[in-house]
Amino acid sequence: MSEHALEMPTESPPRGFLWGAATSAYQIEGSPLADGAGPSIWHRFAHTHGRVLNGDTGDIACDHYRRWREDVALMAALGLNAYRFSVAWARVLPEGTGRANQAGLDFYRHLVDALLEQGIEPMLTLYHWDLPEALDARGGWASDASPGWFADYAQILYRALGDRVRLWITLNEPWVITAGGYLYGDLAPGHRNPHETPIVAHNLLRAHAAALASGRAEGIEQIGLAVNLEPQYPASPSADDIAATARRDAFINRWFLDPVFLGRYPAEMETIFGSAWPRHSTSELDALRAPPDFIGVNYYSRSVVHADPTEQPVGARPVRQDARPYTAMDWEVYPQGLTDILLWIQGRYGNPPVYITENGAAFDDPPPVAGRLHDRQRVAYLRTHLRAASRALRRGVDLRGYFAWSLLDNFEWSYGYAKRFGLVHVDPVDRQRLIKDSGRFYRDAIRRYGRRPRHGDLTARG
Length: 462
Prior knowledge:
single chain, alpha/beta, eight-stranded parallel beta barrel, three-stranded mixed sheet, 16 helices, 14% strand, disordered C terminus
């Protein structure tokens, strides 16, 4: 048995379980304007002085646009049976709407075909934060027209790839799009407007519903929504800390799931946003009720919450747990939180199918030595979080796959290339790839526990 062999407290995952890795377009592709593509808000944001650490951009990133064949071969070497990636909207529709750019569509067609040839199931995310700049100039996600733009874009992808891609995700982390891009301003498009923020959130939910309806019209059967979830625990049994924890839970975890499953926003949202929170009619809320076929869970850490009225708009702040390990992102390593959040979904939303669509950690990796990179902290992170996922499986959670974040060291948004999550090291100078020890560990886990899904049987349970 390998030194990295996995010890999981269950005999086997369900039949058809997907073992994958995840990426996003702007973070890895590079060549953002190649072959007729248009600029995105992230292209503009990264080229704006002071927005990204060290002035880094996604102009080259991992050079995946030119090296995708090499990267598919890496996936096969890791034993993956699934790969989650996103499409760059402006690569397909340079103006955001109108006529599709054939070269952009062909890039993704070739990628999907290569994945299928290797027995790797594609999971396609329609939107991972890179809105076409042309649409941002028309109001972006704050525009009432944005759900229609998104549904039309989705339809183009469904028609182009729906015969080969069966797992689709509409939006990746709408909370981050909303809070990072429109409330705090540290992500593209860089707005800081609490009155605009609830409007953007509502339009994203409308966009999810519109893309789901568009997919159904095209015969697409498996369409999910990927959300970042972070279990919240009160720092003390005080009433103030318990109330603050409930507000933060509503703000991060329930804001985008309650509407699609329950047809309502969390009651705490009006308290959080005050006069900035809009009134919605019953028909408007009913239109948001568009349960996805599965939830994609992006889990990295938890928060221990203390009431703090100076921390707006929620009136709560996380408390650092000094006795616990932290990643290079300053996120606590807390595997139990993954079990807890999966059980929370099971209890609150009726045990829908779930994929862990992102889970991983950035650490300050040592340099490669003699063709090896010993990232022991990431190996430990993966081991403990896979065990946590297994505990949820044993308690009946309908968990159907696990996708490590990330396949490659990549452009980590406003951190540029300073934070590295990859199972595969990417040299910052020549972009050469090297599988880290964490990648070897994951390969061993897949060999021991993985079963390749039968074609057409992605959701079968053993």
